[in-house]
Amino acid sequence: MSRGLSRNNNKLVWQDIDINDLIQYIDNLKSRIYKAFIQKSIKNIHSWQLHFIGSPLVIYLALKQKIESSDMIFSSFELGYVVLFFNCVDISTLIFFIYSRKSNYLLFKKKIDYLIVDVRYRVINWILEIYIDYLYYINNFSFLRIYKNSILYALSNSGHSDCRYAININLVDCIYSINIFSLINKLYVIDHIKKDLYRLLGKGIFFKVMIMLHLSEGFSVLEKGRLSLVKKIIELLILTWCYEISIMFSLENNLDLTQAIIIIPDMYHLLVMCQQPNQLYSWKKYLVYLLISNGVKLRSIGDILPISLLQGINFKHDFIIVNYQLFSTNFIIRPSLYYQFTLLKLISIILKKSRSKPSFLLIIRLNKLLLVWSQGSSKKCKKIFLLLDYLIYLKIKCFVKYKKNNLVQKKVYLQYLIKLPHYLKYSMKKASSCFSTNVNNELYYRQYCMFKLSCL
């Protein structure tokens, strides 16, 4: 045998060769296992990433962030695309990123519930807003206009000052007894959203929030989210009624439709104004028909009567406060902030000029000022200047306090200023004050105010 092919019988050499081969084999095996493990881990991580990015939670988080951005405007197509994810949402089966040894990265379930409920209500609000905007659009007939703004804002428009008659209707009791499920069935929305609305109505949440709205009570965190949804349902219901009434109203003969009817909805209140009382009677008649057909029982139909709006109201210079009562209207008129400022400015000028003058000049000037202001409002409105009384009272108190004559100051303070605690409460049910009393031309020098009495 050649030297190259001779066997090496040295055990140490063979042991060294076996160990090196074994180590190399193990290293190769580790490398393959590691590579396979890495590849499998990459696939798992990739699948988890895809599942996490496509999970409803991340969709809702991204949607919530997009909602809160003020410069975003959504179209109906975008809303319909977003709503499709409702079908795959189930709070109990939401899977989140869970990975590592005995470690679960979970969010708190309550926070998840609040988040999903919040975003769900917002998306449903968007869908209802599409219907509401469409109802506002189709309700603008040639003989009828519905304003989306509040009553005070709409009445401040000078174009409404020609309306002479009005009906104020409180529909809160009607909404309690109406079948709102029939309204939800008319909406062309995804079945999942209908289930959410049915769940909201079935648990009594709708009526609970209605009662809290009617009583002006506070709301919890969840109830604040439901509040906007309940308002949208009420607005949608009232606008649907107005549209159905307008259709019936337009088919009636012998009606002068040249004068438009103005409707201003404010939650479950309706303020209907027009120049002709016959149109309001007809509109009221069809409203009664609609309520009766929906299962509402009216205690007294004759109580819904048009009342004459007070003459002499300046919609730019006066506050119009509508006192809501069932099937009745009560208007309270107060001077605007500009008029209050003007009056106080004039009083300040008169007080400043009268510091070195006799007291009777101050009395005459203030009486003339009160005479002008009392004639500017209708005689039907009592205690119009109650707030002004309190402001004038503060001015007079400050004026008397710094008056040099201590005897007059003490006399006025003890006899008149101490006896006026009701000014501090802004109460309109207390006894009328001298400023709130109307000044009559014939009794001009007999109806004196507090200033003249203080100087006697």
What does this structure look like?
- GO terms for molecular function: RNA-directed DNA polymerase activity.
- The protein is of the alpha+beta class and about 450 residues long.
- The chain folds into three domains: about 10-120, no CATH class; about 140-335, no CATH class; about 335-455, no CATH class.
- About 55% of the residues lie in helices and about 10% in strands.
- The protein has 16 helices and seven strands.
- It has helices at about 10-55, 55-70, 75-85, 110-140, 150-155, 170-175, 180-185, 190-200, 205-215, 220-250, 275-295, 335-355, 360-375, 385-400, 405-415, 450-455, and strands spanning about 145, 165-170, 260-265, 270-275, 305-310, 320-325, 330-335.
- A hairpin with a 2-residue loop joins strand 6 and strand 7 (about 330-335).
- The model is unreliable at about 1-10, about 85-110, about 310-335, about 375-385 and about 415-455 (pLDDT under 50).
Largest sheet, spatial ordering of strands: 1-3-4-2-5
Major β-sheet annotation: 5 strands, mixed
Residues in β-strands, percent: 5-15%
Query: Roughly what is the average pLDDT, rounded to an integer?
Result: 59
The total number of structural domains is 3
Give the structural class: alpha+beta
The count of DSSP E runs of length 2 or more, i.e. the number of strands, is: 7
Number of discrete helical segments? 16
Estimated radius of gyration: 38 Å
Shape: flat
Q: What is the chain-wise order of helices and strands? A: HHHHEHEHHHHHEEHEEEHHHHH
Helix content: 40-55%
